[in-house]
Amino acid sequence: MAVRITHVRLSGSINHENITNFRWIEEESSETGSNTKASIVEFIDVQGVRAYVSSPNGRAEVGVIKPNGRVPYLRTYADGEWNNNLLSLPRF
Hints:
InterPro entries: DUF3892. It comes from Arthrobacter globiformis. This is DUF3892 domain-containing protein. It contains 1 helix and 7 strands. It has one domain (2-88): 2-Layer Sandwich (Alpha-Beta Plaits). By secondary structure, the protein is mainly beta. 10% of the residues lie in helices and 50% in strands. It has one helix spanning 37-45; strands spanning 2-10, 19-26, 31-36, 50-55, 58-65, 73-78, 81-83. β6 and β7 (81-83) form a beta hairpin.
């Protein structure tokens, strides 16, 4: 299963670690939902769900960043680099 992340909610300054919630769509079934950062991290990291965002060049895969001593968070990865596609998404 793969979900496309469509919107983000932030708390505080604009950086990846401050994204608190994600809105998504599972395109095969058209199911939509909204989940907390912790839930989406678990879906990707533990359950193996693939997540991505649409980008001007196609898709940017979403991965889990696990900084030492801090809460895991999500970032996009495309063209061999971690990038800011999540921060460019609409807010909800």
